[in-house]
Hints:
Number of helices of chain B: 10
Radius of gyration of chain A: 23 Å
Structural class of chain B: alpha+beta
Strand content of chain A: 5-15%
CATH architecture of chain B: 2-Layer Sandwich
Distance between the termini of chain A: 37 Å
CATH superfamily of the largest domain in chain A: Aldehyde ferredoxin oxidoreductase, N-terminal domain
Strand order of the largest sheet of chain B: 1-8
Largest interface: A-B, 62 and 49 residues
Bound molecules: iron/sulfur cluster
Oligomer: heterodimer
Largest sheet of chain B: 2 strands, antiparallel
CATH class of the largest domain in chain A: Alpha Beta
Number of helices of chain A: 26
Strand content of chain B: 5-15%
Order of helices and strands of chain B: HHHHEHEEHEEHEEHEHH
CATH topology of the largest domain in chain A: Aldehyde Ferredoxin Oxidoreductase,  A, domain 1
Distance between the termini of chain B: 52 Å
Number of domains of chain B: 1
Number of strands of chain B: 8
Radius of gyration of chain B: 20 Å
CATH architecture of the largest domain in chain A: 4-Layer Sandwich
Helix content of chain B: 25-40%
Shape of chain A: globular
Helix content of chain A: 40-55%
Amino acid sequence: MTAPKGGNFGKVLEIDLSKQTYKTRPVSEEILQKYIGGRGLGAYYALTEYKAGKNPLDEDAFVFIGVGPMSGTMALSHRTCFVNKNPYTGNINHSECGAHLASEIKFAGWDGIYIKGRARKPVWLAIVNDKVEFKDASKMWGKTTETAHEMMIKEMKDPEIRTVVIGPAGENGVLYACLVVERFRAAARSDTGSVFGDKKLKGIAVRGTKYAVPVADNAKFLAAARVNKENNMRGEAWEGIKKWGTGGLMELKHFLHGSLITKNFQTTWYPDVVKIGGEEAMRTFWKRHAACTNCPTHCLKLGVIRSGKYAGLVAEGPEYESGGLLGTNLGMTKFDEMIALIEACDAYGLDNISTGGVLGFLTEAMEKGAIKPADLDGLKPKWDDGDTYMEMIRRIAYKEGKAGKFMAQGVARMSKQIGKGTEAYACTVKGRELAAHDPRGDKIRAYSYTMGTNGGDHHEGQGPQALGMTAMADSLVICSFTNFLLYGAGADKITTDMLNPLCGWDWKTEDYWTACKRIFTAERILLVREGVSSKDDRLPIRMYREKLPAGPRKDVVFTDADQKDMEAKTYGFFGWDAKGIPTEATLKAYGLDPFIDELNAAKKKYNL
Amino acid sequence: MEDKKLPDVLKKETSRRDFLRGTATAAGSAIAISAIGGIAPKKAEAQYSVQGVPGTKPYAQKYRFAERQNCTGCRSCEFACSLFHYGTARPALARIYIAKYKDIVDVPVMCWHCDDAPCIKACPTTPNSLTKDPKTNGIILNEKTCLGAKCMKCQEACPAKYIRGNPDTGQPLICDLCGGDPQCVKACMEQAGNPQGPCLQGRPLGIGVNMAFREVTPEQAGKDLANLLFYPNVEGKRVVPAKSKTRKGR
Ligand code: SF4
Ligand code: SF4
Ligand code: SF4
């Protein structure tokens, strides 16, 4: 086993919650060069440690908190990645979010944190450099995310700690519970909240002061990182994001793209967006910009509600997804009520997107008469009814009553239970609610929704190349804004230019692409093992059947031809067959040959 | 105007400190502050050349200021500082750092290069382990003579509560102004350049503004900022409306 020359320490922190012990899990240079870190390394652990059909809530199931070689360096890398097998979708999933947690993990001397086991009583972890303390979380249990975060700061007497916590939703096993990082950021699309809850793990606080990331060739690396930084500073691409965050996209997607989610994907035309979008936020709400580690883009916006029923509410957003799902998707017209819904989800630790999906779906089902208030313990959701939505969110988080338990299952399961034609407007892919981009207006987004590993995820890459580049970015755990969304396919050069001197590698741009494809294909093996194939790489029925009724993309549907084209391009690019199964030759080319037998077994089992 | 005609609030005695605090977030208030008793520029300092004027040399930036409300909390300044001094990105060694206040504001905590430098006065070694570079105004630490963690008299004396200990050596981390070319200022310019302008700025003249800033501890600066930005919720709590049913678990 070779030790890494730079970028990584070769050490992952392994924590066993059952035994309340921890140790160093060495990770070799060979593996790091193949799987990079973050999402890739998580997929590697799942491939080598899990059998098909693994129960995500087994005691020895893991959550991998990944960082990458660039985290904690001058390379503009600040995201943290979470990988776990997901009880919500039954598949291996990943989520990423920003803030300062990743560099803190690096400065504490780790290339990631691997957590397994289940505590008997609620615990939280205090990680300071090489030391881990298992702390009693019984007083924190039941507290909202912000309160738990504050209690950790108080107990560690250090406001500079970086935290990741769950809220009541995760504790109560709501299937789409998320993790909240440093109060205002959420890692949601791996639904790790319920896994933390199952492990009786309230959260983790990290403080790193002892280490700096080793660099193989400092001068060369700094020069390359400098180029990257300059491009990010001076590139015009993100001027809008700097000013508006992603909230400003709400108006853009309405007026220009015709892809703004509206009332559970009934349309994309929502003129009231001007009352709740980025411009309203700019005028009346946002007070400051906040950035992740070392990033010039500062896309996070914080504000305070000045008057009305929610006066004094300090909140983050609206971002495009949160404002879409909990704003336009619910027909909201009151800015403060929308912000309150967003903040409530963050407080309870619920995925904004799936929660919005659930509320939107139920509102439409109520409108169409598929369910009655009696089915929801008397709740009667209707568009723009902020108070009812607020109450629904609370009941979901605490799984309160029949309605709470019902809603906590998510759209796919609810629709199955209700029947009555609700599948026509249950908008999920691979068991997960879609984000705020309507794929009829934004067709390239369909790649991300359908082909991406998570399913329904807006951030898995638009187009075949982007699917690969996202897999890479999530494994380096860097933000796509600072990488391929800025450079396009040119990201291969700038990324290898930084990686080579950092890690002491000798990569050509081809190696970058091989790694992209290897990681994405490794995840695909994990999916195929569970029976996933091209039949699952499809959008919700609504997208093929119903034409958009209004807006810039009026009368557009996602056609079968669109679907065929997308499948051919994606499978072709990654070397998979027409059913979306990686071929033997492909696995050999990416060095994934140890998994050929398993894939063949799955093909036989599921008749693929 | 006669005093009795004034509204009550204006009649009240406002202490100078409060006044300074209220204005200290903006470097633009430098002039106002100097007018009420800040330090007048010394002769030698007044002779500094003006940038862009032919025949004059570029000046050393002897003072730094912060438009604190512009700070995005990106910590590029921390990265730049540790990179400059140690060749590696390690914020724990930076001589500037970003303190979070109630999670809603970020406060850049930095040295104000006080003209009277209480930190140096407090240093018990002879000669002092801290000295001021007369050319750049930076505070230089003599690592050989500094007593480190068991002393830290400078830390106690600093009115800005700025000084941190070096996690490796225990000695104070203190700002040497990078020899007159502050790296953190450059980093900040790059960072927050668009659209709200940078937070950190360097100038050859302090005109007393450093005296005003230094009275304000990081915590107080955080309070001021929270007040400025998030009034009425200066505690930064997620406020739950009294009538809402969402109180459970909070
Ligand atoms: S701010 Fe503190 S460290 Fe800086 S010169 Fe003044 S007393 Fe010394
Ligand atoms: S002026 Fe130089 S030494 Fe002082 S805080 Fe800034 S970068 Fe660090
Ligand atoms: S570089 Fe500027 S904006 Fe960024 S944290 Fe430092 S002071 Fe704040």
